Amino acid sequence: MENAAQTAIQRLTALQDLDRVVREKTEQVQALKKEMEAAENRLAQQRQLAETKRNEREALDKQRREIESVIEADEARMKDRRMRLNRVRNERELQALRYEIEQGKEVNRTREEELLALLEAGEVAAATADEATRVLAEIESGAQTQTAEYRQRIRELEAAIAGSMAERERMVAGLETRLLRRYEQIFARRGGMAVVEVRNGICQGCFMNLPPQFFNELQRANDVRTCPNCHRILCWRPE
User: Fold this and answer.
1) 135-138: long-range contacts, CB 8 A cutoff, minimum separation 24
2) pTM score, whole prediction
3) What is the pLDDT of residues 6-19, one digit of tens each?
């Protein structure tokens, strides 16, 4: 008949298998949540970019309209000056009016050049804004489907984890509290490998030879033993 130590180790071995499954599913949930967060960040960044490009286009459009308004007002003033040329008889006033007209022409040329630059910049800004909006719509469309898939998978994994945790409660019932605590500490420290087999006198956790005397005692032991090298719980089965 199996002694109490062997029975406890068998239960711990089964518990370890279950805990590994829970750990793996939990890591999958965390990974999916990180992917969802990354996708949400990408979407937020694209929304910000699209808004920035729209604002840039609107700002250029506003500048263009302002320049056009100024040019229109200047042209009205130029027309008025030209009409006054025919009425002025004083040479001094005539020279001053002609000077104003020439200066106005120069100012208008500068403003028309500025307007042309704004028109070109506006076309580029409009194309950039349209592209940013198109990419945003594309990301939003894909994100909705992807997020729905992620959430469904997370729900499935969390349901499986909940079922495994309920099973775990039943498995740990009856285990000695101190032994369970020791197992859980080793499981956490040793990457999910708390219980390991001994084969041909070698610990399968650290692959170190067990001292001969220790190995002989392990085969006859009625208590739970741990590896003197890696401190994992040892499981020995007769060859």
Assistant:
1) 135/46, 135/50, 136/43, 136/46, 136/47, 136/49, 136/50
2) 0.71
3) 788 889 999 999 99
